[in-house]
Amino acid sequence: VEYLVQGWLKWAKPDGSIAYGASISGQIVVT
To answer: How far apart are alpha carbons 18 and 8 in whole angstroms?
Structure first.
């Protein structure tokens, strides 16, 4: 679960907006 959280946090854009990547999250979950 920690890996998922870190992955999502890393996707946060420097502009201040958080980008959610379903594809990336899916791959992480599968692997």
So the answer is: 8
Domain count, the chain: 1
| pTM over 0.90, yes/no | no
pLDDT by residue (tens digit) across 11-24?
556 676 665 554 45
Q: Is there a contact between 10 and 25 (Cβ–Cβ < 8 Å)? A: no
Collect all residues with Cβ–Cβ distance below 8 Å to 3 and sequence separation of at least 6: 28
Q: What residues make up the domain containing 12? A: 1-31
Helix, coil or strand: residue 11: coil
